[in-house]
From TrEMBL:
<dbReference type="Pfam" id="PF01613">
    <property type="entry name" value="Flavin_Reduct"/>
</dbReference>
<protein>
    <submittedName>
        <fullName>Flavin reductase</fullName>
    </submittedName>
</protein>
<feature type="domain" description="Flavin reductase like">
    <location>
        <begin position="10"/>
        <end position="150"/>
    </location>
</feature>
<dbReference type="GO" id="GO:0006208">
    <property type="term" value="P:pyrimidine nucleobase catabolic process"/>
</dbReference>
<dbReference type="GO" id="GO:0042602">
    <property type="term" value="F:riboflavin reductase (NADPH) activity"/>
</dbReference>
<dbReference type="InterPro" id="IPR050268">
    <property type="entry name" value="NADH-dep_flavin_reductase"/>
</dbReference>
<dbReference type="InterPro" id="IPR012349">
    <property type="entry name" value="Split_barrel_FMN-bd"/>
</dbReference>
<dbReference type="InterPro" id="IPR002563">
    <property type="entry name" value="Flavin_Rdtase-like_dom"/>
</dbReference>
<dbReference type="GO" id="GO:0010181">
    <property type="term" value="F:FMN binding"/>
</dbReference>
<keyword id="KW-0560">Oxidoreductase</keyword>
Amino acid sequence: MDDRAFRTAMGKFATGITVITTNIAGEAHGMTANAFMSVSLNPKLVLVSIGEKAKMLDKINQTGKFAVNILSEQQQDYSMYFAGQIKDERSIEFDWISEMPVIQDALANIVCTVHSKHIAGDHTLFIGEVTDIVIRDGEPLTFFEGKYGKIVTNQPT
């Protein structure tokens, strides 16, 4: 199979959108990612997949810490900005939890220390042990077949 067929098949899996953040010398860094999942309840572990060409790879390797910010349906601009789809420079105001920058008003901010990492193909899988968490109500920003979306709930008629 060719790369396009593989990407198309993977696009059939609807996901939420996260921004992965870290802190280097007091400066916040972020990247958009939808390759995120929970791994374990005891201990509390999550996984993010970072491409070998992503600048974030070296940053997480350097800090040994990252935060996963699960975006709400109102935060598509954050996703586009941290994915490099919005080119103009923006001043992002972060909240800070345990010395980690986090996206304000995200549905969840999950602060982690790197528990382990595994190179798999052209990505590194970082398993993070959750050290702090903040949860908010709201609806998630979704991604399906290369397009952003929202959850539509059936309303009684």
